[in-house]
Amino acid sequence: MNFLDPANSGLLIAFASAVAVFSAILVVSWPYLFRSNLETRMRQVANERERLRVRERTKMEAAKKTSLRAEPRKLFKDIVDRFNLAKQAEDGEVVRMLRRAGYRGQNPVFAYVAFRVIGPIVLFAAAALYIFLILHLNKPFFFKLAIAIAFALLGYYSPAIFVKNKITKRQKSLRRAWPDALDLMLICVEAGMSIEAAFRKVSEEIGSQSVELAEELSLTTAELSYLQDRRRAYDNLGDRTGLDGVKAVVTSLIQSEKYGTSLGQALRVLSQENRDMRMAEAEKRAAGLPPKLTVPMILFFLPVLFAVIITPAAIQAVRAAHGG
């Protein structure tokens, strides 16, 4: 084909013009023909986030209506008002201690303060009644009185001892399950989930291992959706647990929120540190086992061993003596 021919050149110009017009129309209509799903996906993410917030707020409100906002029992409240113990009921240290034991709201605080008043009186009266009227102990009066006072002191300190034992058991459960929870949280964060969704997912999965940790993470998820200051929700998690490992993770979460640092790398390092700490604690307990077994071995194992070794010789000696 001769492109220099005027007829052919006109045909080429017409074809090029048609291609140019078609390309221009395609470029202009491309966004309308093939819409990007980015906007749709972002809208779905926003809707999912808002749905999570509404659900967690609903759970938080239901929890407050059922437990946290429940009015204290009239007996406990009357005792606190009668002895002017409102300052002790509002003491931040008492509230913090009860939260670490798993007791939240005003009712446990009033009950704790009331038991510290009722306990000494009841135990002192019961001990005095038993010692002076029933037992008829042949001892001096002041000795009997000292025994009754000792029971009164036991009644005063018994609520604190009970709460501290609950804190110890609760922290033990949290400490054992926390490294596994960090691994699950790391997987969720690296998969692209938000921190609220990660907390919610981990709380659902870790419940079979530690109910206490699942409860704390669920409460943190609700606070992240409910509280305006997210840092306060993280601080509350560290304050309720009282564990150094949890506080370190809380610090990393706060720094990630404030400075935009990588949360996945921080969680990976902290997870390994918590596992190393748990292994070191297990090795420490294993190293302390031999000294603890010394006394049981002396009392129970060695006498049996000596009996097994000496009894045949003693039997032979007795037979020889009788035969002689």
Automatic annotation (TrEMBL):
Domain Type II secretion system protein GspF: 182-310
UniProt xrefs under Pfam families: T2SSF
Keyword annotations from UniProtKB, A to Z: Cell membrane, Membrane, Transmembrane, Transmembrane helix
Bilayer-crossing regions: 12-34, 109-135, 141-163, 293-315
Superkingdom in the source lineage: Bacteria
Primary residence: membrane
Compartmental location: Cell membrane
Protein name, per record: Tight adherence protein C
